[in-house]
Design goal:
- The complex is a heterodimer of chains A (about 60) and B (about 525).
- Chain A is about 55% helix and about 15% strand.
- With about 60 residues, chain A is α+β, with helices and mostly antiparallel strands.
- Chain A has one domain.
- Chain B has about 525 residues and is α/β, with parallel strands linked by helices.
- Chain B has three domains: about 90 residues, Alpha-Beta Plaits (2-Layer Sandwich); about 220 residues, Succinyl-CoA synthetase domains (Rossmann fold), CATH 3.40.50; about 190 residues, Succinyl-CoA synthetase domains (Rossmann fold, 3-Layer(aba) Sandwich).
- A seven-stranded mixed beta sheet of chain B has the order 8-7-10-9-11-12-13, with helices on both faces. A six-stranded parallel beta sheet of chain B has the order 15-16-14-17-18-19, with helices on both faces. In chain B, strands 1-3-2 form a three-stranded antiparallel beta sheet, sandwiched between helices.
- The chains are: A alpha+beta (about 60), B alpha/beta (about 525).
- β1 of chain A pairs parallel with β4 of chain B, so a sheet runs across the interface.
Chain lengths: ~60, ~525
Amino acid sequence: MSEAKTGVQRLLREGPKAINLGLKEFAEALAAQGAKVVHVDWSPPPPEAQELADLLEKLL
Amino acid sequence: MFRVCLVQKRRYFDSMFLMQVSQRLRAEPGIQEAAVLMGTPANVQILKGLGFSSPELEGAGPDDLVVAVAGASEDQVRQALAKLEGWLQAGRAAAEGAPKTLVQALAHLPEANLAVISLPGWHAGREAKNALEHGLNVFLFSSNVPVEEEVALKRLAQAKGLLVMGPDCGTALVAGVGLGFANAVRRGPVGLIAASGTGAQEFTSLIHRAGSGISHALGTGGRDFSDAVGGLTALTAFSALVEDPATEIIVFLAKPPGPETLARLAAHVRRSPKPVVACFLGVIPERVRREWPGRLTTTIDEAVVATLELLSLPRPPFLSGDPAALAALAEEERKKLLPRQRFVRGIFAGGTFCYQAQLLFHLARVPFRSNAPLSEEYALLNPLRSEGHTLLDMGEEFFTQGRLHPMIDPTLRRERILAEAEDPEVAVLLLDFVLGYNASPDPVGDLLPALQEARERARRRGGDLLLVASVCGTEADPQGFARQVERLENAKVRVFPTQAQAVQFVLTFLGRRA
């Protein structure tokens, strides 16, 4: 099996072990089903950081 | 009346939290209107529509928090605002110590294999890319991700051997664990690849109720089967299910694919060592019928029946409708109504349920209107005003801007039920109730008082109202399937085991079964 297939296959074999970004309820529902989950207390990046990332994206 | 509209720059809370906070604020003494929202262009428009204005509001951006409150006196508004600040700070404090970024979270869970992303669309794509670059598969619930960004994410995923479910992916089941809006479904031999969220919920719930189960139900997002995206996720998911030892049968559930995507999928299906069923919801073009190498069905019920046949399982009684019994039932209901009561109004929370209802009306040659039409000829001019038979998708953008999905927030469906009851020509209200994780804790209880009031209004005019419903879910769902059905039946709502059967009953009532 090529390495490329491993990521999807690992997900199906092991079940979700999740990082949750956004609605906290989604993390709670995963935990209630016995899945491992870590919720991120997310905030929008500062505008300068976004602009820098966009610029890098264009350059690279 | 005293009105305040404040903007706090670069302060973010998620939409579910803000809805809860807005509701609490409205319940404060003297408060008449309150909205706490992120300052997206759509939300700013909503606030202007409610009569709020301020120079700050003009300059609000999507990462800014907007607080709009109207109350009887300045004093009461100030007190409510002070309480609000407490709730907002408590919301942040609850997350004290939590990781602030994906990379920090990975330090807490180095074995992570999935990012679940429900951020606003304009941030979601960047975070999804970041997740892929860290070797994570992505479940992307967010909508409003541009199609070019979707294609770029899916190409990156393909190169890395990862799966992107979405954007706009409502539902998935991975190894028995539900993501987003999903039902508690037992594990079994059926693998599903679905472009539609509520379609996947209905299919997986029916397979469960028929005694079988689901290995994995992988979402693709609504655009994946179009030629613009080319089935990138569907193909990755298909290869994964072909190799997955738990999967014996693979089912596709989507609108009919674009011509190029169809050819690509068909080539893979032809070589598949496992049987394949396709449920292409919609009017299936002749070329699709010609080219598709596997079983082809057009409704979710047919797909379930075809799947059970391939598994050599008996068709359960709830999937064997009796047309004569339906006709007798329709006749009995007809007698309670006045001659001028002619029209059907479908008020759906599930997009696929609205779509499937339209498809069956179309096949039965019954003209209708919809705000999310099957084709342009059926377009409803004004989503707020029904005409003739009308089938409404209450989860469509017009109704959800600045609000939560009707599967969580029943307010607009409740209002619409009561509005339809004012129309003396309305005969039937057709509804769906969607159970499962992340849906309302009591979908039936949310709407039952409005349904009873609607019927009472029709009775005061000397007629009645035929209430027809289907419930999507399983006994293992947090809301309990049997309990929800029983409460509807006790209130004399005609409940059918599947949504397609509920629609067929309504068509029988109209004398036009598909």
